[in-house]
Amino acid sequence: MKNIKCDCGHVNPEGTVLCEACGKPIESNQHIDGNEKNKLLNMRYEGSARRSKTYNRTIVDKIWMFFSSVKVGVWLIILTLIASALGTLFPQEMYIPPAVDPAEHYRDEYGIIGQIYYQLGFHNLYSSWWYMLLVASIGVSLVICSIDRVVPLYRALKKQRPKRNSVFIKRQRYFAKTQDVSKQDVEKVVSQLKKKNYKIREEQGHILAEKGRFSRWGPYVNHIGLIIILIAALLRAHPFFFVEDYVWVREGETKIIPQTDQQYYIKNNDFIFEVYDENDERYGEAIEKTGEMIPSNFQTNAEIFKVKGEPLPGQDPELVKVNEGAIQVNKPLKVNDLAIYQSSYQLNEFQSMSFKLHLRDDENEESLGEFTFNMNDPKSEYDLGNGYRVVVDEYYPEFYMDDGVPDSKSKYPKDPAFIFFVYGPDIEEYEVNFLAVGTNLNPTEDNKYKLSITGVDMRDVTGLTLKRDHTLPLFMIGAIIFMIGVVQGMYWYHRRIWIHPKDGELWIAGHTNKNWYGLKRDLEKVLEDTKVEMPQDQQELK
Amino acid sequence: MDYFTISSNFLYASFIIYLIATFFFGATIRDKNRPHKKSKVGSIGFVITIIGFLSQVVYFITRWIASHHAPVSNMFEFMTFFGIMIVLAFIILYSIYRINLLGLFALPIAIIIIGYASVFPNEISPLVPSLKSHWLYIHVTTVSLGNAILSVSFIAGLIYLIRQIDQSVRSKKTFWLEFIMYSILSTVAFIAISTTYSAMGYTAEFEIPEVETTIEYNMPAIAAPNDSEMLTTDKMPPWFETPGWMNGVDAGRKFNSLVWSLLGGLVLYGLLRVILRKRIAAAIQPLLRRTKPDILDEVTYRSVTIGFPVFTLGGLIFAAIWAQEAWGRFWGWDPKEVWALITWLFYAGFLHLRLSRGWHGEKSAWLAVVGFAIIMFNLVVVNLVISGLHSYA
């Protein structure tokens, strides 16, 4: 370390631009802050010695230099900004319909640009390695640039003395000289400054009035908040901190809640779907204009059970009710550290369908045997008695015709269809019955018997999202610290006014980290009714 | 009178009051007093502005009573509220800096935004379940106040640019400045055209046979929907079809509105150029001579420093808390969320650039313009064009 001793006697660390104690420019280091070309001194970091501006020999120095540069920081921000914007050009993969093949979806919906978008991986842009790398670099930059500046800045502000070097005073943005100022006037200025809550320090007739120094720490405080938020985001990768799951529960059904080690069960007592009344006095006009139903409520009335004791394998556990209530959008239900959100639903799902067998040309359709197909417990064969039986050849829960071939869109019984083989003592081989809701599409006209639907049972299904998120408090702390930091740094200002007697003249200089207009008004107020001249702004934009 | 009517009347009233206030601020240009000293006309303008603001507050409260929820739930209500917040942001910055010119520019921008809001259906609409939360007004009010304060930075930046850009030669800068003027005029044209046609009750229907839907146009179709047939026979036939790659919801109708506003803007701009016989900015420039550029630069920066924390709180933190409650995730890369992040990153970049020399003054002013473009993109385009959880109206 090559320390630098200033004329005032203070020993500064290597790389110092302005003496920490008296502010005198240290000649050999003026290029660091670009002071040599300018009339005014660069006061951004008080001319303190920053590691990034002092050492550039080793690889560590170079990395440190790179990440502590504001220029690099701004570039990282701009790149992240552009990347983020690109990701909104088309929907991300999580927002496209779940059943489709993304490769086809992007090509068919958005043409050639969509295909390129998909092939570049932009459909999962925010979880891509390079986006993560950008965000991580911003994190590294936040840490390094903060450490690089905050330590020397703290030193410089702590070591500053009221008596400054004349060159320092002269090269401040607000500066004036006045001749023959009376002692009374100086005292008046000082008392005005005190009234304005400036802290006054004096050294051999030189006065430093300072206020709001803590606002200088604002940027570093908010950077700490951001780093905490980034750390919280990292922790979410671990299941201890963050778990997400999904469960469908039919009305009347009791299901294990996932992610609870089979310890908790949920029962869906009722799913409620409500829409606004189109004759409503208040909203009627708007509903009519929209031309469709506007939902007003999605709600699951649920009960939560806990398993009592340790059930033996194969034995049904004994359940104890621990909680019950309504789960609505915006009103999740809590089970320990798990939150249950209303997130989806399916109205009128088929629960069971009943059929009867009768002679095809019997107008009264007199029953020769009946059976009920339960969607939750489908059997492959149903015995109708008297030697008649029905074999389920195909079951399509959500039926549609795919180029003339029957198929199912999903495994959920939204629109079921069946192919039944009917066997009987007077049937030669078997008769084929093809049934969907409302139709019996018998392929052949020579069937003797016919199956008809006698009844259906329907019910609603609720889709619930489960979340366990232990990172939330950390995000909250990060956000609060960030807010404190920005408010501290932006709603308060670090103002300093120096009173500097020099060769019978009174020099006055002012500096603030932001809001120069406010400093000017302070000076005007403080110098009112005195002979001291109002400092001029030496840097007015032309 | 019911609350709804009262509310609408107060909104009309404030619209007129802002117009009057603008004239008073305009009169300060001819004021004999020195700039930045208290001018009587300016003070009157400011008082009138406050009256207009209060009238709009009455609109807000009565509409809240009428609709039983905070009136920030659709495009009409939201843009109107954004207009109120711009006026509030102006009031805040005017009381610090007392720059009359700021009123001359801020109020017209607020008027245009309120006018733009009125293009959307203004009936009271019910809340869908996801919006039923106290966070609706906590989140929306803070985020629009934040956006509004950041917008004042654009207004100050715009004044700076008009005053400072060299108009004696044609340059890239004069081009972009005229482009800003043209964009503002296009918005004005859009409001005028759609208000006129909706007052006339204009409708033309189109059918898209492939998907069996009909689309109703409320202004003459320059661009018809893609692959469509016109059902209405006695109206102007479309000039061309909307290209097929524009395939958002109602792409045809929105594209048609865009074409209308761009053409309307061109007509307005052309007329003004013919009347003024010079660039619009060049015509305004002499009126701004007496304002000091460094105070405008200061306002540009100061409004960002005031607005940035407010925006962060409303647009990211409150937004995240609500998203956590409604959807079980505080961040989901929905386009609206991403664009809020982009806005935040942009202004974070702005604040960091101010640390270096050479980014004050003109460059800052251009940045403020870009920032406002991003805000408007998020408010308008993301809602209307990009589909996502925040698409409404």
From TrEMBL, chain A:
GO terms for cellular component: membrane. The keyword DNA-binding does not apply. The keyword Phosphoprotein does not apply. Keywords: Cytochrome c-type biogenesis, Membrane, Transmembrane, Transmembrane helix. It is found in: Membrane. It is a multi-pass membrane protein. Residues 70-426, 444-523 form the ResB-like domain. InterPro entries: Cyt_c_bgen_Ccs1/CcsB/ResB (IPR023494), ResB-like_domain (IPR007816). This is Cytochrome C biogenesis protein. It comes from Salinibacillus xinjiangensis.
Automatic annotation (TrEMBL), chain B:
GO terms for cellular component: plasma membrane. One of its GO terms (molecular function) is heme binding. It is a multi-pass membrane protein. It is found in: Membrane. Keywords: Cytochrome c-type biogenesis, Membrane, Transmembrane, Transmembrane helix. Pfam families: Cytochrom_C_asm. The chain crosses the membrane at residues 12-29, 41-66, 78-97, 104-124, 136-162, 174-193, 258-276, 299-323, 338-353, 365-386. Residues 73-186, 267-390 form the Cytochrome c assembly protein domain. The keyword Iron does not apply. The keyword Transmembrane helix applies. GO terms for biological process: cytochrome complex assembly. This is C-type cytochrome biogenesis protein CcsB.
